[in-house]
Amino acid sequence: MTTPEHARNRGTAAECLWSASLIGPAGMPQTVQPESPPSREAIVIILARAGSKGVPGKNTMPIAGRPCVEWTIHAAQESRRVGSVVMSTDCPRARTVGEYCGITVVDRPCELASDTASVDDAARDALVRFECERGIKSPDPRTPIVLLYANVPVRPVDLIDECVRTLVSSGAESVQSYSEVGKHHPWWTCVVEADGSVRGFDAEPDEPLFHGIYRRQQLPPAHIPDGGVTVVTRRSLMLEVPGAPQGPHGFLGPACVRRGVVSPEGSVVDIDSPADALVADAMLKGRGGGMRWERRVGATVRRAG
Question: Model's pTM, two decimal places?
Answer without folding.
Answer: 0.81
